[in-house]
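Action item from last meeting closed. Structure (350 res):
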């Protein structure tokens, strides 16, 4: 299949008809899958109501069928198609943070969307993305759009159209190129079906921000203990991983350089993922810079691009610095821990 690519300014006015968006939305309506930018990462969209369309998402990504998709909406009217049950806390969060990087798990209205979208669960994940291209595309399609991140399963999520094409060229009908995404990590997934909402996946909206609006919020215990079964099906899979094994290195840069030197002395090719404060210090086969430690949002913004930059460098091992688990740092460390399959070396401990 030929994958079409349409370029659009990321400040499109959703009231106007852009020919690229009209064409992309037409294909969505016809049951094709189309990748598009959101404020977090690129999504791979299909009509959430259609079994045939949604099954193409799973096929293109190589995604396990037990991993449900997030349904993207562009207006509150579409919410009524999906759920009848909006707890008061969820309503407050929507009012405060939508459009934005917050996905809410709500009770699903019977027959609301394709059962493939929800992997047969009686709940549905919903979010309203904060990106004019995403909103214009969903509006033009006129249906809720099921969309996981537009990467091959297991790879880092795409933060640019070129990442999407690297994984899915020839496998999908098209990609709308709205430039690089802003947030850089996926949305926060919050289960609102329990009395106290539970964070199933830390993401672009921090726990601290959520706590400013609702008093109590918990975290899925599986986020702390890798042996606990996660409530969000997708969280059990290895993810975000470059081809070479990644190790988290918790220590100062001089100690990390010693780790690198030892491996290089034994003939291995070594990569390192570091923020701009220390990147130029390292001597390695590949150094990927991801933002500034002084601004964790900048680290989130460039994390996946940095991880992808190791591809095709033929590395044997990659070391990554660690970050404080505060604000968006919780999402950064969650993704890095998964990319590392929880392999961590701590100075003075190993
Ligand atoms: O920022 C984002 O959330 C991006 C953009 C494209 O919107 N999307 C994204 O989708 O990251 P995906 O499929 O890569 O991750 C969705 C996560 C998975 O961990 C999935 O298991 C979980 O949400 N999820 C979806 N529906 C669920 C449900 N009903 N109950 C629990 N977890 C659910
Ligand atoms: Mg994903």
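Sequence:
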């Amino acid at each position: 299949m030929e994958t079409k690519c349409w370029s659009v300014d990321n400040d499109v006015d959703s009231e106007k008809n852009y020919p690229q968006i009209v064409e992309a939305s037409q294909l969505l309506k016809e049951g094709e899958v189309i990748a598009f930018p959101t404020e977090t990462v690129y999504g791979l969209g299909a009509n959430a109501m259609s079994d045939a369309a949604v099954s193409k998402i799973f096929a293109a990504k190589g995604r396990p069928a037990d991993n449900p998709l997030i349904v993207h909406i562009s207006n509150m009217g579409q919410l009524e198609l999906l759920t009848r049950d909006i707890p008061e806390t969820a309503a407050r969060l929507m009012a405060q943070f939508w459009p934005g990087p917050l996905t809410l798990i709500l009770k699903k209205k019977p027959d609301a969307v394709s059962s493939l979208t929800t992997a047969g669960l009686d709940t549905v994940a919903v979010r309203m993305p904060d990106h004019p291209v995403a909103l214009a595309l969903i509006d033009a399609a006129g249906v809720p759009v099921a969309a996981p991140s537009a990467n091959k399963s297991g790879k880092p999520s795409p933060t640019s159209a070129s990442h999407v094409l690297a994984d899915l060229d020839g496998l999908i009908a098209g990609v709308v190129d709205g430039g690089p995404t802003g947030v850089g990590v996926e949305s926060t997934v919050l289960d609102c079906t329990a009395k106290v909402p539970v964070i199933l996946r830390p993401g672009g909206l921090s726990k601290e921000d959520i706590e400013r609006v609702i008093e109590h919020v918990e975290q899925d215990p599986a986020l702390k203990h890798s042996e606990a079964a996660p409530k969000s099906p997708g969280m059990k899979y290895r993810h975000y991983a470059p081809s070479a094994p990644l190790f988290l290195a918790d220590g100062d840069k001089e100690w990390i350089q010693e780790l690198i030197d030892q491996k290089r002395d034994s003939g291995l090719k070594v990569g390192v993922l570091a923020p701009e404060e220390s990147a130029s210090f390292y001597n390695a086969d590949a150094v990927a810079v991801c933002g500034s430690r002084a601004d964790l949002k900048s680290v989130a913004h460039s994390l996946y691009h940095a991880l992808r930059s190791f591809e095709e460098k033929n590395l044997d091992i990659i070391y990554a610095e660690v970050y404080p688990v505060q604000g968006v740092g919780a999402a950064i460390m969650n993704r890095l821990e998964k990319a590392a399959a929880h392999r961590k070396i701590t100075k003075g401990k190993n």
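Note appended to the action item: The first strand starts at residue 4 and ends at 7.
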